[in-house]
Amino acid sequence: MSTKSSGMPWWEDLQTDPDIFTPEDLSEDEVMIAKTTEKFVKQSVIPDAERLEQHDYQAGEETFAAAGELGLLAIEIPEAYGGLELGKHVAGLVAENIGNGGGSFSVAYNIHAGVGTTPYIYYGNEEQKQKYLSELGTGASVGAYALTEPSAGSDALKGKTKAVWNEEKQAWILSGEKQWITNAHLAQVYVVFANTEAGMTAFIAEKGMEGLTIGPEEKKMGINGTSTATLVFDEVAIPTENVLGEVGKGHRIAMNTLNLARLKLSFANMGSAKRALELSVSYGKERKQFQRTLTGFPMIQEKIANMNIAIYGIESMAYQTASQVDRALEANSEEDPSRVVGQFIAECATSKIQASEVLAAVSDEAVQIHGGYGFMQEYEVERIYRDARISRIFEGTNEINRLAVAKSLFSQFQSQESERPTGLNRNATFIDEAEQRFFEILKALVDIPREDLLEAQEFSQLTADIFNDISIMRAAFLRAEKAGAGATLKQLMTDVICEEGYERVEAAIIRLWAAVVANPGKMIASIRERPNVPEVENLIKKKREIAEYVIDAEKYCT
């Protein structure tokens, strides 16, 4: 499967056996890892949730140590340095299961195992890997990532922190401030980005270095169980052996590390959404109003169905994307990982956007289903709702990620024609028509001068939203096709995703045509005529059927 713009039109693989990875393809060993993670959350995270929320650093250290003992911190670390070297889809599987009930620790875990560890894997030299990876993999050290500054949030590469080479000390003198650093008080080692004469450079700073101080804990809306504070560097001497990667090439480390972090975050968000759905169904089956359980009301059933469908869509896409990245890195193991990972900017950003917005919607509906109780802190959905809000902001705001998706599409687009397939089934026809219309508008967009195109951020936002919907439609469709005729629930959910997804795509494309060309009437009329679009079906009925499956299972199900 390919969702790359350079491969458009994408039609061909709608008719072939899908060579994709889905959760149903997890091996027995991988399923065991998932169960181990789930058990870890129940035994080591949930019981200490209150201590973590009160910034009990000993509790945090104990939780990381417990995760390290089980190997959960070493999933992506190479075997040569004590790791399991299992790849992105397994790392995602663990992140998902920690997100499912793990609360704030899920964020701390993702920072440590993601941006706090992967820079050493891909950019560290042999000495750095030997020194840091084994301790990060066992939990003996906790990792953090210091990029954001008070004056440089979304514009992360414009930070003011500087590093100047001091010949006498044979060290880089680091001065500046990094803001909102997750794991700040728990971490022993930080990946820090600073400007040098050669450009942005990544450095390894260690707790206890003279001149490095950690500010007080931030008072946050949510994720209160994570340590979040400012790091202040007052002429901290960083030895030359603590330069990570090449001097002046730190921007590559920063952007590609964030790219992979976005993918991992999508798994964690998915896990939290599953937890919110499970709590909602459980509460809805117990709570009675007007002599009926809440789950007996059609409007509640529709909410439950929509929650399950949305999670299914992002789950399908996230696992397929992680597998694609794994395959690409394995096939190009001798190449610069920055180049390989850079090919998946649109996919990783899309996964992050979709998963964080699915979590937002699902957690909101979870509170709604709980009614007044959902607003009370003794109910878990209240915390999930608050914790969810940050996911649309960190690892790049969703606005920044939408711009990244669009920029990637605009830069890779090739105006190549190919013969459209015939004999497609209903859902494939929705996808085919959406892609054809998208292809047409992209041709018009890339003819606009690049500077003007990127300046018109509304164009980028709509383009990214179209790509997001098509990606979800494709992922769900290919997963259902792979599952075969007996996968009734998958087919029902795919039916809804493809029909509703097409509706959104069509509306966005019409809005773009109205803005891009002077006289869009003819093109808009041809879209609205829908000569190739299937007739609408009774989605109300299908959602009721989907809800029945979920209510019977009392949790997310496929």
From TrEMBL:
The keyword Oxidoreductase applies. GO terms for molecular function: acyl-CoA dehydrogenase activity; flavin adenine dinucleotide binding. Residues 144-236 form the Acyl-CoA oxidase/dehydrogenase middle domain. Residues 248-409 form the Acyl-CoA dehydrogenase/oxidase C-terminal domain. Keywords: FAD, Flavoprotein, Oxidoreductase. Its cofactor is FAD. Residues 27-139 form the Acyl-CoA dehydrogenase/oxidase N-terminal domain. It catalyses: a 2,3-saturated acyl-CoA + A = a 2,3-dehydroacyl-CoA + AH2. It comes from the Bacteria. InterPro entries: Acyl-CoA_DH_CS, Acyl-CoA_Oxase/DH_mid-dom, Acyl-CoA_Oxase/DH_mid-dom_sf, AcylCo_DH-like_C, AcylCo_DH/oxidase_C, AcylCoA_DH/ox_N, AcylCoA_DH/ox_N_sf, AcylCoA_DH/oxidase_NM_dom_sf. Gene3D superfamilies: Acyl-CoA dehydrogenase/oxidase, N-terminal domain (1.10.540.10), Butyryl-CoA Dehydrogenase, subunit A, domain 2 (2.40.110.10), Butyryl-CoA Dehydrogenase, subunit A, domain 3 (1.20.140.10). Belongs to the acyl-CoA dehydrogenase family. This is Acyl-CoA dehydrogenase. It comes from Natribacillus halophilus.
